[in-house]
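User: What would this chain look like folded?
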Amino acid sequence: MSHPGHPDTAATSRLLAALGRDRATLKHLLDCRLCRVRLRPTVEAGNDAIWERLEESILDRARELVQAPEETREWKTEGRLAELLALPAKERRRAVERDERFQSSALAGQLLETGRSAGRADPAAGRERFHLALALIGRLDPEGAGRETAAGLLARAHSYLAESLALAGDRNGAEAAFQRAARHLETAADPLDRAWFCHLLSRLRAEEGRSDEAAALARRAATLFAAAGQASQAAAALLDEIRLLLQGLDPERALDRLFAALCAPG
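Assistant: Here's the prediction, encoded as structure tokens.
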């Protein structure tokens, strides 16, 4: 039974033939609102090259998102990062705001992680990458990236920025950045984003002499990192907690935490 405006069987068969056995791409196109929006102008053009344009503008992109091996996606993201950083400093923000090639959650994550490592030698360079990441995240499509993913990236960006500001002696700026991070954590899905928040805020509280609060945050961070399989970060947070307990003249509790960690499975 036909319905007004619906394609006939032959047209549907042509689409399926173009897709072949690429069921993952078909499912992506059916589920992804962003791809449907991008497909509309191609469909409405109504010319004879529609299937070629469909393959070029939609299928290749969908296959890349759905089927590309993790290492291929990482390689492409690293290439985009190198391309972005090769631009003059004044042009980078405009690039992430206007050029769709630079608007991906993967690139935002790369900016954050490389910003933190670069910031050890050049704090200003690290903060520039954090601000680029914030500008980029603001341009992500919420349907494509996911609101929870974007919230997690924002939380981590503000947490990293807070750490950098604290190390530069800007305690007020750091506190404000942590407050922004906390707001985004309310809708973030990845426990790692909360782990980093707790870990970095713990260190600020320790610098402020708020040892009990710092130790509690460090313990929470260690638990979250361990649950996420981040053993080295969990160990770093645990050592922070033990050091704080020792400084607070509570060696018994510090030893309890140390022995508990050593006896834990895995």
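The first helix runs from residue 9 to 19. If you want, I can go into more detail on any region.
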